[in-house]
Design a protein that fits this description.
Elements: H1 3-11, H2 18-35, H3 41-56, H4 63-73, H5 82-112, E1 120-123, H6 128-139, E2 145-149, H7 156-167, E3 170-174, H8 179-182, E4 188-191, E5 195-196, E6 202-205, H9 208-217, E7 221-225, H10 233-236, E8 268-271, E9 278-281, E10 284-286, H11 291-299
Parallel strand pairs: 1-2, 1-4, 2-3, 4-7, 7-9
Antiparallel strand pairs: 5-6, 6-8, 9-10
Helix pairs in contact: 1-2, 1-3, 2-4, 2-5, 4-5, 5-6
Bound molecules: ribulose-1,5-diphosphate (RUB).
Length: 308
């Protein structure tokens, strides 16, 4: 898919979920490189910059997209001609997508070990990585039950319960307001991530922080399932994560409330590190306090480059 169509599909949420939008961004840049005609280096770099911007502007919160796009263009300016640049972009995109798919599989295997036979699990929204953990445990023969929140206003919970039910898992859909009440029955919570900050806070679907609070109160383990490309290098340098606000038409129909009523529709929230028992990554299970070290190690010398 070309860059503009990919960006539009991310914006209107036809392509959604932090991992998928990152892979879609990498794939769009690969297609852009494959179809590029021209050999003037400066023109190409300007066109590439425009393509990057189009993708990055599609949705603001998930740093996975930023990391996927930057991983795909890494090293381009060191190539000697446009031909080499195009080949590098396609190669980088393939590596990013392969590593991403592999990370999701590894997290499934690591996370599944945290689930015991007979456990009841809660999840929210629709995280392919968290669902990977739950499905891996089920495929290992563990008898599990899952409560999934509806996740207003987009109701991604419908996707989640459909996926889990198709797998044969005992699945119950609950409204978002039922989280605290149902938490008494739950053994572990598994959620995904859009961004993890350098100080270990989780940015995920709105309502995730309520789940974490309810889990903490009930002494239920709260696990975040996240590939390390959801760790935000931007936050190392003090940047705040932009919380996306979407159109109010996602919350109320036209004329449903008096015109004087304001409607606020933030679609992500922040869960402080202290409510997170562990982050399950492709590098293993870690505490939120380890995020800084992992990020610095992964950035290596690039930490001294301009990342903003
Ligand atoms: C999706 C969401 C998911 C994360 C992780 O929000 O919050 O929990 O993106 O997803 P939206 P994954 O529906 O607004 O994109 O684990 O699939 O990367």
């Amino acid at each position: 898919m070309n860059v503009e169509d990919t960006a539009a599909s991310i914006r209107d949420m036809t392509i959604r979920g932090a991992g998928k939008i990152a892979r879609a961004g990498a794939s769009a840049l690969s297609d852009f490189a494959e179809n590029y005609r021209g050999n003037d280096v400066q023109t190409f770099l300007a066109d590439l910059e425009k393509a990057k911007r189009t993708l990055l502007d599609s949705r603001p919160t998930a740093v996975s997209l930023w990391n996927g796009v930057h991983a795909t263009v890494r090293g381009v300016e060191d190539q000697k001609d446009v031909g080499e640049m195009l080949a590098l972009i396609q190669n980088n995109a393939k590596t990013f997508i392969d590593n991403s798919n592999n990370a999701v599989r590894l997290i499934g295997e690591i996370g599944a070990k945290r689930i015991k036979d007979g456990d009841t699990i809660m999840t929210t929204c629709n995280s392919s990585v968290a669902l990977g953990v739950i499905k891996t445990a089920f495929r290992q023969g563990k008898d599990i039950k899952v409560y999934a929140t509806e996740s207003r206003p987009w109701r991604q919970g419908i996707l989640t319960v459909t996926d889990l039910a198709n797998e044969g898992i005992d699945t119950t859909l609950i409204i978002d307001g039922a989280v605290r009440s149902v938490m008494k029955k739950v053994d572990e919570v598994f959620v995904g991530a859009d961004t993890i900050t350098s100080h270990g806070a989780l940015i995920n679907k709105i309502g995730t922080s309520q789940l974490a609070l309810a889990a903490n109160e009930a002494r239920v383990q709260f696990y975040v399932c996240s590939e390390t490309y959801k760790f935000s290098p931007l936050t190392l340098f003090g940047d705040r994560v932009t919380i996306e606000e979407r159109d109010i038409s996602e919350v109320v129909k036209e004329g449903e409330v008096p015109a004087s009523v304001k409607v606020f529709n933030p679609v992500f929230d922040s869960t402080p590190a202290k409510y997170i028992d562990a982050i399950i990554t492709e590098l293993g299970m870690m505490s939120p306090g380890s995020v800084y070290d992992v990020m610095v190690k992964q950035l290596g010398d690039r930490i001294f480059q301009k990342v903003i």
